[in-house]
Structures are given as structure tokens and as C-alpha cells.
Amino acid sequence: MSLKLLTVAMLAACVSLTGCDDQQSDRAVQKLKELFNAVKPDALLLKDMTPGITTEAQIRDQMGKPETERTFTDGSKRFEYPRGPQGLNTYMVDIDRDGKLQAITQVLTAANFAKIHIGMSEDEVRRLLGKPGQVAVFPLKPETVWSWKWREGGVTEEGIFNVHFDQFQKVYTTSRSDVIRGR
Questions:
Q1: Which CATH number among 3.30.460.10, 3.30.1450.10, 3.40.50.300, 3.30.365.10 corresponds to the domain 110-178?
Q2: Can you list the pairs that 152-159 forms with residues at least 24 positions away whose Cβ atoms lie under 8 Å?
Q3: Cβ atoms within 10 Å of 54's Cβ, excluding its own
Q4: Which branch of life, at top level (predicted)?
């Protein structure tokens, strides 16, 4: 069903491009490419990505614009690719100072969640887990909760991992929630 919807959307975009000038057309094509990268299955997103061979330009072309891009003092980089607001994967793509792929890591795992500890800052959590799928602010508590949907396995395959920040933007606890399905 979603493949049909994607095909219809792409056809509609192509038809709408026929009335555009070159600059508008280029922007529209770029937007369409960004949309496709956002919904592209992980198998296509990661296809033929080879550490030590794949270049930064190839990564950008295949995976699209990263949500966040960090450059470190040694010249290496890390790109963050969350898979949708409630996707089950967030990929951190490490690039060496020569512009070659080092590694791609899916960071929404129990092992990474176990690294979250009391006192961590929002930035430290973001660097470890990537962009949360949901942020809830409770001003009366005061508390902010970041949440990531992830594939935890077990009885209910999907779960939600939550990080609770206090009024000083520091972690004070974590929790787990069930994914609520429609009826």
C-alpha cells in the first residue's frame, strides 16, 4: 500500500514539475529526493555502503542530508540519520578525515540505552541516541521527556525508551513505555 502511495506521489510531483522553470524544477527535484530518502527502506538506504571505500559525497547522495552533522577536531565527521519521527532506527554515520566511510551504527539499542545515566546533559544524550521521535514538556513538574520508538524484541516487538530531564536539562531517570496501537 505505501509503495503505491509513494509511486502516486512521485508521479504527481513529476507532473507538477512540467510547469516550472529550471531553478524551481531543481528545488522541486531536491525536495522530492529528500522525501524519498526519508521513506526509503533501510536496505536501500544502506545498500553498497562500504567502510574505507564509500565517500562522503556518495553517502550524502544515497542517504540524503543528515539531521545533524558534527565535525571533530581531528577532521572526522559524524552524520545523524533518524528514520522518521517514530522510526525504529537511528543511524550514526562516521566519516574519517579523508572523507571515507568508517562505520554505520544503529544506535537505538538496549546497550546504548544502558549508557544513559543520571546527570547527563541533553547534548550528551542527543550525541548518543540521536534526535528523539517525540519531546513532551511538563512545565508544572518541571520535566521534559524525550522518547524513541525502538525494536526491543520480546513479547511486544516495539517499545518506547524515555529519557526524563529535570529543569536544569539533566537526566534524572529513564523509563520504558508500550507502543499504543489503534483499534
A1: 3.30.1450.10
A2: 152/110, 158/88
A3: 19
A4: Bacteria
